[in-house]
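Dear H.,

Thanks for agreeing to be a second pair of eyes. The structure we're designing against is below in token form, covering all 379 positions.
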């Protein structure tokens, strides 16, 4: 049952290009289906965040990460009476704008654009996700992009600088950029996806970190949330060890965060009693963890930063990945003949090159790099 503060597909603020209703699906189901059938969605399978695609078959990819976010988001949405289909659509689309090689690729592309002549506004993956669904997908006869509903697009644009927001407002004065200028909040469904994303990557990065051998189980003793979940698992199953202990601890960790989020959000909803989505927008963020869980989550993130994302082996890989992106950008912008014609003919060459590189999967970027430079940075 949808609560009065949930997004109601019948009250959607609509699509940029008006369309008649689908016979069997509501607006958000339709958005979800459009996302699943998009080209950018299929590419997520060969894009990674921490570990590169060729490093192993069992690490998370952006696709499996997005599915985990959708799963967590839907269960929480159902419990809170929020719109599950909208949560699913946002979760499945939230990472569509990521470059190959995760944040290293994004940073490199951002540096390239800012250093170009004339300098460009830079590259930001949230904004790029919106760009993918608004402009870059080529699937429909009458318009570019997927023509998604306002509510899904709002959830996809999770962060945005004021400068970028103002640019968005030029094209769409009351659009998804507005809240970054007037300081209002997005729907509860969008707020939820944001935190479901955090829950998902904190847990799966521990899993992948241990699997890769870069993190050890002993190191995790210092992470309060993990350690107390592991102790709980051992109290119930004294002889548990190895992989099953890791999985059971992570399972408990996920459950604790999900339950904490549900309880803290319910309390915030009870305290503020918003009667509509409009009321939600004017209030502070209501989807939240308890203070204690927020502190524990912060400690976990700091641990992952220190020990996994800045692990020498990860840094060494991401440095090379950054070079791949920078080299590709340099070659393409130096000689348009190296680009596919559909990219070379675009009116804004630097942005077109950035879109082209951002759309690449890890492995396609590596193939292109090898083809154009003759170098093999990842043998
Ligand atoms: Mg994510």
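And this is the sequence the design step returned. I haven't edited it by hand at all.
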């Amino acid at each position: 049952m949808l609560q009065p503060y949930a997004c109601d597909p019948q009250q959607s603020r609509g699509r940029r290009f008006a369309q008649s209703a689908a016979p069997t699906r509501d607006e958000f189901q339709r958005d979800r289906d459009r996302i699943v059938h998009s080209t950018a969605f299929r590419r997520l399978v060969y894009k990674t965040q921490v570990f590169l695609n060729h490093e192993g078959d069992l690490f998370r990819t952006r696709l499996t990460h997005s599915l985990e976010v959708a799963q967590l988001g839907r269960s929480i949405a159902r419990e809170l009476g929020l719109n599950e289909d909208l949560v699913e659509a946002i979760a499945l689309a939230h990472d569509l704008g990521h470059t190959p090689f995760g944040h290293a690729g994004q940073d490199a592309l951002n540096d390239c654009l800012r250093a170009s002549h004339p300098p460009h506004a830079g590259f930001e993956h949230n904004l790029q996700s919106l760009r993918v669904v608004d402009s870059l997908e080529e699937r429909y006869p009458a318009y570019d992009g997927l023509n998604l509903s306002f509510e899904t697009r709002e959830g996809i644009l999770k962060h945005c600088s004021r400068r970028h927001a103002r640019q968005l407002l030029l094209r769409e004065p009351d659009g998804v950029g507005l809240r970054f200028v007037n300081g209002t909040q997005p729907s509860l469904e969008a707020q939820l996806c944001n935190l479901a994303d955090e829950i998902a990557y904190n847990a799966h990065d521990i899993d992948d970190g241990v699997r890769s051998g870069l993190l050890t189980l002993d190191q995790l003793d210092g992470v309060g949330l993990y350690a107390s979940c592991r102790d709980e698992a051992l109290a119930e199953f004294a002889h548990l060890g190895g992989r099953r202990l890791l999985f059971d601890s992570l399972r408990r960790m996920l459950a604790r965060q999900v339950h904490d989020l549900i309880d803290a959000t319910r309390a915030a909803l009870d305290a503020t009693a918003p009667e509509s989505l409009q009321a939600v927008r004017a209030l502070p963020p209501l989807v939240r963890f308890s203070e204690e869980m927020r502190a524990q989550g912060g400690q976990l993130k700091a641990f992952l930063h220190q020990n996994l994302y800045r692990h020498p082996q990860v840094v060494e890989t991401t440095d090379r990945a950054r070079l791949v992106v920078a080299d590709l950008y340099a070659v393409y912008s130096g000689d348009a003949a190296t680009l596919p014609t559909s990219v070379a003919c675009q009116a804004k060459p630097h942005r077109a090159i950035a879109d082209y590189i951002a759309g690449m999967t890890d492995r396609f970027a590596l193939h292109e790099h090898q083809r154009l430079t003759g170098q093999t940075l990842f043998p």
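Two observations from my side: The pocket of magnesium ion is lined by residues 65, 94-95, 197 (CB under 6 Å). The chain has 18 helices and no strands.

Warmly,
E.
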